[in-house]
């Protein structure tokens, strides 16, 4: 277990001590929270963020263990080191929260997001959209004579880059799932 | 052993199995089945309050004076929303409560039914945890879990919302199973950190203990261990408003309360110390004053059961997550095994410095022959009730600070006040809860007339249950603390900080069936207080005091501990624009 892994009920090994104290630098962290899948648990987590004035850049949640009734919530958040530490400690206080891991400090992790992107266009633009989709390994999941819907999976910046390229080619709508993430190794 | 019974019966059975003897509540449509079960038994005493907020504060008073969780039973909708202030109060002061609310039947939830409110939604941010129970089979288990969550780790209020059909339906009753819960907060502190603290304590030249409500919540054993450690090391000790009584006010190392209206010697010791040992307190803004000037030259240790308290506002050097009692026990063990060392010479010099600060006599005030000064009234109350089996509750404001300054507390669980939330209207119902738990003790609610009016309906409860609570009202016909701030901060424009239509408190007492006493001459005060104490029944004591007295010492907003105001001299313009936005 990493020294930076915040075990519920204890934060002796705080990442806080490794960085400048009360620094003003805004950091972006990906935090995964294993929670008991009971009614209202997501509202508790979101309510904590809104009630204490923390940011949510992205949030995903789904049940990951049907027999154990456990769900994993992945939150991407931004804040100063002190705020990030508070977020983790406050999450740990929520009674149905089993575990809080800060993937940004815990070690290398895999972050993936899925997006579906509707591109409307004709002629060269349509051909170019299809060619770029191929480069990004996006799949065509719906097509009409003047539109495509692409499905793309990847790190959030890859999806940003794909959307930026599609915009001049007729991007009309985009839906993103938000980040799902896990620690690499064991 | 499981038995089949209705949900309503299960509630009563679970309360019995959890050792509950008293419930504070108010009936209504959605809890009638539970009230029916209460009617049919004699083990649990139900105290009928006059307003649901009163029920929650009474349960808080009960919990804080006994160390046991307080239990509340109210109906759906307005019953639950009226409980919200009390829940928030208990959350901020970490008081264990189990609040049961009725709810409309499950099949009507979401239909805007009569007296329906989204109780779990409304109370989610003001409880430690809450549950809506939709199946009778899960009710008993949830009730037991609720007691476990309320009392384990950092205590707090929990709420169970029980729809009426769940109360009527039959289900299997499960008796309590200890250790069944997944919620198991850490109690033992890390030995490495504890050893580091002991090492710091052995060499510190100017150490100070800063203790809080965590010592009291940890139980009487924690106070005993604290006393042993403080007296063996000779280290001075101060406490927050919440922690008064964990170390005796008569103890030789006692500095008095610290913070915004704390004692000069306590705040100066915090400012000048080289080792600050926070035991179960949370660096609240009433304590720290200006953060960048808070105890600037000290190494800081923090013992707290809640990891989120560590480094929340003040960065500490030695964080110890654990229960105060367990940690203090380990500190004593390690300190003794390392030879009971302290830097005795340096501490003697430090104590000398502290007695110089004490010689300023920061609590001195200009007394009057003709008008009762509120400080004098509290001095007399202290003198005349010292040594009695005495419990004090307060409302919120100047009188609360004066009570903390002028009354001495020798033991924990004797002082009930709304610290974190600052709830006016707390004291009267709290005094009732305390008196229910300690029927033979002297229970005094030190109040201001404005706060007192906020929950005065509870006098009806006191009279009904023959609870001889003493309502000691320091009546200045003003919202004293608001007036003080308006004087210091808003150019003496006293916007809406007085009441032009106060009731005649003596007649009010008589209308309730209690005794009323009025006193306005300092010469009559002692006799009047004795009359109040000796009367066998509830008393409303209308003590007419100086109207424009200010509460000192005071650290103005945005100032540091060593920038205290000691008296009326030069208070103009002391709070600068930066501090003015603070509360």
From TrEMBL, chain A:
UniProt function note: Catalyzes the conversion of 2 pyruvate molecules into acetolactate in the first common step of the biosynthetic pathway of the branched-amino acids such as leucine, isoleucine, and valine.
A Pfam family of this chain: ACT_AHAS_ss
Keywords for the protein's UniProt record, in alphabetical order: Amino-acid biosynthesis, Branched-chain amino acid biosynthesis, Transferase
Origin: domain of life: Bacteria
Ranges where the ACT domain occurs: 30-105
Coiled coil: none
GO molecular function: acetolactate synthase activity; acetolactate synthase regulator activity
Annotated metabolic or biological route of this protein: Amino-acid biosynthesis; L-valine biosynthesis; L-valine from pyruvate: step 1/4; Amino-acid biosynthesis; L-isoleucine biosynthesis; L-isoleucine from 2-oxobutanoate: step 1/4
Its EC number(s): 2.2.1.6
Record keyword rRNA processing present: no
InterPro entries per UniProt: Acetalactate_synth_ssu, Acetolactate_synth/TF_NikR_C, Acetolactate_synth_ssu_C, ACT-like_dom_sf, ACT_dom, AHAS_ACT, AHAS_small-like_ACT
Database matches in SUPFAM superfamilies: ACT-like
Protein family: Belongs to the acetolactate synthase small subunit family.
Subunit structure and binding partners: Dimer of large and small chains.
Cleavable signal peptide: none
Annotated PROSITE patterns: ACT (PS51671)
Name this polypeptide is given: Acetolactate synthase small subunit
Catalysed reactions, semicolon-separated: 2 pyruvate + H(+) = (2S)-2-acetolactate + CO2
GO-annotated biological processes: isoleucine biosynthetic process; L-valine biosynthetic process
GO cellular-component term (any): cytosol
TrEMBL record, chain B:
Keyword DNA-binding assigned: no
GO cellular component: acetolactate synthase complex
Keywords: Amino-acid biosynthesis, Branched-chain amino acid biosynthesis, Magnesium, Metal-binding, Thiamine pyrophosphate, Transferase
All residue ranges annotated as the Thiamine pyrophosphate enzyme N-terminal TPP-binding domain in the record: 5-120
Enzyme class: transferase
Catalytic activity: 2 pyruvate + H(+) = (2S)-2-acetolactate + CO2
Essential cofactor(s): thiamine diphosphate; Mg(2+)
Chain ranges of the Thiamine pyrophosphate enzyme TPP-binding domain: 396-543
Residue span(s) of domain Thiamine pyrophosphate enzyme central: 194-330
EC number: 2.2.1.6
Pfam families: TPP_enzyme_C, TPP_enzyme_M, TPP_enzyme_N
Sequence similarity: Belongs to the TPP enzyme family.
NCBIfam families assigned: acolac_lg (TIGR00118), PRK09107.1 (NF006581)
Annotated protein name in UniProt: Acetolactate synthase
Organism in which the protein naturally occurs: Tritonibacter multivorans
Record lineage: Bacteria, Pseudomonadati, Pseudomonadota, Alphaproteobacteria, Rhodobacterales
Originating gene: ilvI
